[in-house]
Design brief:
about 100 residues, mainly beta, Immunoglobulin-like, 4-stranded antiparallel beta sheet, 3-stranded antiparallel beta sheet, about 0% helix
């Protein structure tokens, strides 16, 4: 995996708006290689966990039907400016990716 992910978190009233862009190829395992005609092996993010100051606020299981370089957006009630958001992912090959941001 290349650069990982970019996260932006901003306060909108009493709710934090979190947006994350993850750099991942997200292969389904159903597409064929144009040159060889063989199936390209599945390679996708299958677990995403987001925490706010160490407390889990989102825990998601993903499948192969998520687009390349997935975008994730969610809102958190009760957060404050300066709180720390961390997003961790694991793909079906066991590779991990992590990103963090302070809420602005």
């Amino acid at each position: 995996m290349a650069e990982g992910m970019k996260i932006r978190a901003t306060m909108q009233g009493d709710v934090a708006d979190v947006k994350a862009l993850m750099n991942h190829i997200m292969e389904t395992g159903l597409r064929k290689d144009a040159n060889t005609g063989k199936l390209i092996p599945a390679y996708f993010i299958n677990h995403v966990v987001a925490t706010l100051n160490g407390k889990t606020v989102l825990d998601a299981q993903w499948g192969a039907a998520i687009a390349k370089n997935p975008f994730l957006g969610f809102k958190i009630k009760g957060a404050k400016a300066g709180d720390k958001i961390v997003i961790n992912t694991v793909d079906n090959k066991g590779e991990k990716m992590s990103g963090e941001a302070a809420i602005a």
